[in-house]
Design brief:
With about 350 residues, the protein is an alpha+beta fold. The chain contains twelve helices and ten strands. The longest helix is centred in the last third of the chain and has 23 residues.
């Protein structure tokens, strides 16, 4: 544990570095912060903090910069005393609701607004609904052997998928199949239905086996679309605004990573058993090399008490953590409230 004086010196260095992006010397701390000690004492404390791994000294510089270890200590202290978020702005929530007609649109807009609010790359993970129960399946005939499959879950989410058949099926036959499937799958979760379709030979409709054989794989595919979450990003090139990414190759590697949806899904879904509504991964704590100089802050959004998705930001470890923690906490509540309003 660090004593009170070392903590004051360390946090003064962190706050100065957040603003300047430059190495911080003892003279700067002595002039800008009234710590009640001499510059020589500050230098000694900085030397001790470096020995303990909280500061590092860049080449050709007399100043020091905070390490990942320092940021972790700083962030953990913030989280201990952090309130529920910054003062809520109803205009943000109203904008989300006004400009989002469907759930997918809401999540996409969330990434856009979050990036604008924070000036960082923002990520938004659509609701994960594998454990939700089926409320209704409807199969509607369209032109040219195409059908529309509408899946509604117990939370009120609607997923529409259009498929092309190899044969013509009448509206009457599709209605019969829809009613049969609704009765067959009533009360089951989406995940359970997928397993049931894949493992069981469902042939309980006389004279309709051929139609069922054609429809069930399509139903299965449609349900998988419900299970598979989508991920949206916005503000990818904002990383270029930060001096830490003035090196073009480093910036290009970051942008390439953010454009890879599979990798983004990995860092967003990551710890499925995460219970905390907000999570911060700093620098070397990231599993991907390209993010070793970055922090990733994610927050859960909910439907009622159930966590169903995440939003997040990615940027250099030199972040205004108190402000961003407040933004993420408040914004996740905005999304949760808009979701509830959309489906009530």
């Amino acid at each position: 544990m660090l004593d009170e004086r070392k903590l004051k010196v360390l946090y003064a260095i962190i706050n100065s570095h957040l603003l300047s992006a430059e190495p911080i010397g003892s003279r700067t701390i002595s002039k800008e912060y009234n710590l009640g000690v001499s510059p020589a004492t500050i230098r000694n404390e900085m030397s001790d903090l470096e020995d303990k791994g909280y500061l590092s000294k860049p080449h050709s510089s007399a100043g020091r910069v905070p390490s990942d270890k320092a940021y972790r200590l700083y962030v953990d202290d913030i989280l201990k005393i952090s309130s529920s978020g910054i003062e809520r702005d109803d205009e943000i929530k109203e904008t989300l609701y006004r400009e989002s007609k469907q759930v997918e649109e809401l999540i996409r807009n969330s990434a856009k607004i979050l990036s604008a609010l924070t000036s960082y790359t923002a990520l938004a993970l659509s609701p994960q609904l594998s454990s939700s129960k089926l409320k209704h399946i409807q199969i509607i005939s369209l032109m040219e052997k195409r059908i529309l499959i509408v899946v509604v879950n117990s939370s009120g989410f609607v997923k529409n998928s259009i498929f092309r058949l190899n044969q013509n099926i009448s509206e009457e036959e599709l209605l019969i199949v829809s009613n049969f499937l609704n009765e067959k799958f009533n009360g089951l979760t989406v995940e359970e239905i997928i397993k049931k379709i894949e493992l069981e030979n469902i042939k309980e409709m006389p004279n309709m086996e051929e139609i069922l054989n054609a429809i069930l794989p399509i139903i299965n595919s449609s349900l998988r679309n419900v299970v598979n979450a989508d991920i949206y990003s916005d503000g990818v090139t904002k990383i270029l605004d930060y001096p830490e990414y003035s090196d073009l190759e480093k910036a290009k590697s970051f942008i390439s990573f953010i454009e890879n949806e599979e990798l983004l899904m990995d860092i967003m879904v990551g710890n499925k058993n995460q219970k905390d509504d907000l999570k911060i991964v700093i620098g070397e704590e990231n599993i991907y090399e390209v993010l070793k100089d970055c922090s990733v802050i994610t927050a859960n959004y909910k439907l009622g008490e159930k966590t169903i998705g995440k939003i997040g930001i990615v940027g250099p470890t030199r972040m205004d953590y108190p402000y961003l923690i407040g933004i993420l906490k408040s914004f996740s509540k905005d999304i949760s409230e808009v979701l509830y309003k959309m489906i009530e």
